């Protein structure tokens, strides 16, 4: 619901201080594109596009053309992918694809980034690199990351944890969390 992919059956959802439950389909798509970044377990890059084209895509969908390539290149440098910008997405490793996916999720300068098991398909060394990269980007860009994971310990010290078990939420570290939020300080 935070990503505006589902609507609640009751109640209201606020994202970045704005009630989103009143949006029509067009406004929902526009808001999601501008305010929410997504990082998936499998990078979901389009294989026929280059790394650069994949990162630029959300801005282009949102109608932004000015400065798009420059912003995408800046983010790709930040995530260590500047050498791979012209490679097709199906010609890079899983860790490289995940770094490109992080850049794509940040290209519209969202208020919040939702990451669904972003390290779930990576080896432990690459996963640690991705975790550190997300934490660094969080602080550097002043973003809120909400990360869903089954491996809470992989993320170390975070600002807040929320455990979802059997449809109920609890805060704290007593139970293994399924949902985690990382926010800039």
Structure description:
With about 180 residues, the chain is α/β, with parallel strands linked by helices. The protein has one domain (about 20-185): Rossmann fold (3-Layer(aba) Sandwich). The chain contains five helices and eight strands, in the order ββαβαααβαββββ. The protein has helices at about 25-35, 50-60, 70-80, 95-105, 125-140, and strands at about 15, 20, 35-40, 110-115, 145-150, 160-165, 170, 180-185. It has a six-stranded mixed sheet. A two-stranded antiparallel ribbon has the order 1-2. Helix 2 crosses helix 3 and helix 2 runs parallel beside helix 4 (about 95-105). The radius of gyration is 16 Å and the shape is globular. Mean pLDDT is about 85; it is low at about 175-185.
Please work out how many helical segments DSSP would assign.
5
Taking Cα atoms only, what radius of gyration do you get, to the nearest Å?
16 Å
Count the beta strands: 8
How many domains in all? 1
Strand arrangement, largest sheet?
3-4-5-8-6-7
Strand content: 15-25%
Please state the overall shape, judged from the principal axes of the Cα atoms: globular
CATH homologous group name: P-loop containing nucleotide triphosphate hydrolases
What CATH architecture do you see?
3-Layer(aba) Sandwich
Look at the structure and give the mean pLDDT. Answer: 83
